[in-house]
Amino acid sequence: MKKRILIVVLLAVLAAGTLVYFAFPGLMYRANIGFSRCRAGLDRKGVQVSDHMIAYLEGGEGPAVVLLHGFGSEKDHWNRFAKHLTPRYRVIIPDIPGFGESSKIPAASYDIKKQAARIEDFCAIMGLEKFHLAGNSMGGFIAGVVAAEIPGKILSLCLIDSSGVPSPRKSEFQLALQNGENPLLVNSVEGLDRMFALNFNTPPAVPMPVKIILTKKAIDSRAFNRKVERDRINHPLDLRPLLGRITAPVLIIWGDDDRVLDKSAIPVLQKGLARSTAVIIKDCGHVPLFEKPEETAKHYLYFLEKR
């Protein structure tokens, strides 16, 4: 009898939770973000860097590790990865200016060189004399420029499915760009599904109420993301000539099934780097930090501990 009562109570709790989830998806989405930050030991903070307010997450103690997200992404996409780092490191994850909760200034330029300078200023204001630096996609490009500009401050560099150099094989995303389409600029739930399919080997299961929230966020950011894209096009930069200025050891991580940036870019990067190691994550797309966070963090921690 007691067992039946317990089962009934549990079913009632689950039903109530599901009802709240679908009735108040925004509340539950924010609660989920807060929970993921808590599990990672991260707190949300903000700091003024010149004309931009930069929102960031910080947690843990030890040598500093700065993590930079990709285009159209934000700081919380690192949480599942960061939870493996905070027991040993001080982890700092900014919303790169123009994205997430950081300032978006229409009159400013968000080309890669300007963004790298802002991240350098951010790290200086945070009091980071020497630190480890990692970035995914656009964040990897920015991280590479920072590592070349202030090599004496960079203890190590990690490039995760990084942009910045041409790949011998064109990716599905690059072919779409050639045809005048940017699948990362979402304007519908169907567009969100296509973007997920492009970024992940196995797209995450996202309930429809959350998809609607994510789609609205993407639509709200679409115009400014397009501006950032134009700024990059109008101020092109090639990372290859800068690679020789990077003195820190470099770990390159790439998803084996990346359809945004093809893994054939790895030897292009390695050709210009003095010290580099490459790791391929099997059955993984463009964002190993999100799709395979534990495995990706394992490779990164092993790399850090050898320093």
Description:
With 307 residues, the protein is an alpha/beta fold. 46% of the residues lie in helices and 16% in strands. It has twelve helices and eight strands. The chain has helices at 2-23, 25-40, 79-82, 112-125, 138-149, 172-178, 189-199, 208-234, 240-243, 266-272, 288-291, 293-305, and strands spanning 43-49, 52-59, 64-68, 90-94, 131-136, 154-160, 250-255, 276-281. Strand 3, helix 3 and strand 4 form a beta-alpha-beta unit.
How many DSSP helices?
12
Structural class: alpha/beta
What is the spatial order of strands in the main beta sheet?
Answer: 1-2-4-3-5-6-7-8
Q: Using the alpha-carbon principal axes, give the shape.
A: globular
- Tell me the total number of β-strands: 8
Strand content: 15-25%
Straight-line distance between termini: 60 Å
Query: Oligomeric status of the shown chains?
Result: single chain
Spans with pLDDT under 50 lasting ≥5 residues?
A: 6-21
Mean of residue pLDDT values: 92
Helical content class: 40-55%
Biggest sheet, open or closed, and with what strands and sense?
A: 8 strands, mixed
Return Rg in Å. Answer: 20 Å
SSE pattern = HHEEEHEHEHEHHHHEHEHH
